[in-house]
Amino acid sequence: MGEGDRAAGLPGKTARDAVRRTHGAAVTVAVDRAALASEQRIVDTFAALALIPRACDFAEFVNPRINGGLPPSSTAPRTYGKAR
């Protein structure tokens, strides 16, 4: 990012700090039924708003066999410091 993130309209430092915080709190989770349902709702909404050409079955684009011992998608993100 140069002077800022044009797509988000944020100053560069603000955008970089947000990405760092997000990655620090992220938890890798399984691609389970709840995750697929959530992503499907996004696909359906984007299609209804004509942000994408048409709806599709999101589950056709993922491979749940890689889940292994990952926690469920309902697992809360990590937190650092005191809760807000």
Secondary-structure element order, N to C: EEHH
Number of strands: 2
Rg, Cα atoms, Å: 17 Å
How many angstroms does the end-to-end distance come to? 29 Å
Mean pLDDT: 83
Content-based structural category: mainly alpha
Major beta-sheet overview: 2 strands, antiparallel
Low-confidence stretches are none
Helix content bin? 25-40%
Q: Biggest sheet: strands side by side, in what order?
A: 1-2
Number of helices: 2
Q: What fraction strand? A: under 5%
* General shape: flat
List keywords for this structure.
mainly alpha; 2 strands; about 35% helix; about 80 residues
Word description of this protein:
The chain has 84 residues and is mostly helical. Helices cover 36% and strands 5% of the residues. The protein contains two helices and two strands, in the order ββαα. The protein has helices at 12-25, 33-48, and strands at 4-5, 10-11. Strands 1-2 form a two-stranded antiparallel sheet. The protein starts with a strand and ends in a 36-residue tail after the last helix. The relative contact order is 0.18.
